[in-house]
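User: Fold this; C-alpha cells only.

Assistant: Input:
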Amino acid sequence: MIPRILVFAGSVKSASINAKLADAAQLTLAQLGADVTRISLLDYPMPLVDEDLKAREGIPMGAMNLGRLISANDGIFIASPEYNSSVPPLLKNVIDWVSLISEDDGRPLKPWNGRYVALGAASKGKLGGIRNLYHLRSVMMAVGTQVLTEQCAVGGAGSAFDEDGRIVDERASGMLDKTCRSLFDHCKRHGRVD
C-alpha cells in the first residue's frame, strides 16, 4: 500500500518559513514513496469557531472540504509557526472547526479520528518553534489523532533552506528525515483508519 499523506503549513503568510518546511516535508515524503498532497489553508477559508453559527448554518464549506480531504489520507504533516510560545490562531481555528464535523450527507465522519500526525515547526529563533509543538501535540491528541513521537524543529529558519527547498543544517535535516520516515512507516503499516 502506498501511504497517502497530506502536508500543510499553519501559516498563509507570503514567504512563510513554515511553508518552506512543509515543502521540504513534501519532498522527503515523496522520496520515501508516499502519495503526497500539499495544500495551503488559504484555499479552505472559514470564520472563527462559533457554536451559534454552527447551529444556524452548519459546518462552513471550507472546513467540510478540508475534513473530507483529511479523511481521504492516512497521515498528516503539519508545519506550524509559533505565536507567543503556542499554536497560531489560524491553525487552532482550523483544527477546531474540523473537530466539530460529525457527519457528511448523513454518513458518519470524524476527520481527525485516528489519523497519524507528524509535527514540525520552523522559527528564526534558536528554539525552532519547539514550545509551540508541545501545545500543538496536546491539541492534536485531544481531537483524536495519533501524534508521532518524532518531530522536527528548525531554528534559524531564515537561512535554513537552500535554493532547492532542502534544509541545510545537518541536524535539522536529520530530524525532518526521521519524522517523515516515522509518518510514512506508520501509515504504510496501518493504513487508513476508517
